[in-house]
Amino acid sequence: MTVPSLTLSDSTTIPQFGLGVWQVPAQDAERVVGEALEIGYRHVDTAQMYGNEAGVGAALKSSGLARDDFYVTTKLNNGLHRLDDAKRSLRESLDRLGLDNVDLFLIHWPLPTRYDGDFVSTWQALVELQDEGLTTSIGVSNFQPAHLDRIVAETGVVPVVNQVEVHPYFGNEETRAATRRHGALVEGWSPLGQGGGELTDPVITAIASELGKSPAQVVLRWHLDRGDIVFPKSTHRERLQENFEVFDFALTSEQVAAISALDKGEAGRTGAHPDTMDWIPGA
Ligand code: A2P
Asked: Residue 20: what pLDDT?
């Protein structure tokens, strides 16, 4: 199975598919990431808030893979948006990951109701971290169109990706379009909808039986065919394997359109709304 690479606006490349480790408990992370690497995954998406960077790092180390052979993303914790905190936190992430640099560092949430609404300085901190070589690329997560417009207008620096909630019941189309308009790529989180019903939806199960694929494989293929980057999470080896087997088929444009038509708009959102999300761990 060959995972395609996509070129980012800073001319680096990113594997279009990987492993997400949100909700992978710290004590399981080394095993899960290790199994994924054995299967052939070469892209891991973690975050300071997930509490499992050390397990990710241990698996990468014991895999024996060369640094250029895998891609790692981590994200800034919500409580650490101020310049000095942001800078210190990436160094601490690198210690836990056992790496000299990550491939991609993201602002996890814009938190527009915190820090006097100033997520622009936080973006500037990421620019400095990139200049220092601690991360190759910089991007954002959960940025609404207005948040993207603002950081680009005020700094002139475009994030390479915007990682946002996307799955068939929540197409998040306005944000996807705004992200692409800025020349950034969309990374879709909760690509399988976190058990929200997509995997038993009759439109998806019908396409799955037509193609002899599982509903999860069809949903992942839908993301890939729309050009988004995805990293489904599973703690089960059989599912890690199943999710990886999505590069030997493609959907027709009609099948892609039929799945996109399942979009329920805001009613399909499962996570927090970025305009009001203000949670800071331990605060
Ligand atoms: P588990 O970790 O127990 O395998 P998302 O990536 O949208 O957040 O979805 C992750 C959820 O989907 C997890 O609960 C995961 O459970 C489950 N999951 C992952 N892969 C599959 C699959 N191939 N079939 C069914 N459920 C899956």
From this structure: 98
Mutate to test the pocket of ligand 1, among 43, 229, 234 (most ligand atoms within 8 A of CB): 234
| Alpha-carbon distances, residue 176 vs 3, 5, 204, 216, 268 (angstroms) | 22, 19, 22, 21, 15
Give the CATH architecture of domain 7-192+227-232. Answer: Alpha-Beta Barrel (3.20)
Q: First CA to last CA across the chain, in angstroms?
A: 44
So where are the chain's domains?
Answer: 7-192+227-232
Which of the following is catalytic: 41, 50, 115, 169?
50
Give residue 283's pLDDT band: very low, low, confident or very high (50, 70, 90): confident
**Residue 92 DSSP SS3:** helix
For residue 264, the tally of other CB atoms under 10 A from its CB is: 12
Question: Whose CA is closest to atom 11 on ligand 1?
Answer: 194
**Can 71 be counted among the known catalytic residues?**
no
Query: What single-letter amino acid sits at 73?
Result: T
CA of 53 to the centre of ligand 1 (A): 20
- Rounded Cα distance, 22 and 87, in Å: 23
Give 181-193 pLDDT, tens digit per residue. 999 999 999 999 9
pLDDT-based confidence at residue 196 (cuts at 50, 70, 90): confident
Q: Is the pTM of this model over 0.90?
A: yes
Percentage above 90 pLDDT, the chain: 98
HSE, side-chain direction, 13 A CA sphere, residue 175: 26
The vertex-228 CA angle with 226 and 233, nearest 5°, equals: 120
Q: How many CB atoms lie within 10 A of CB 90?
A: 22
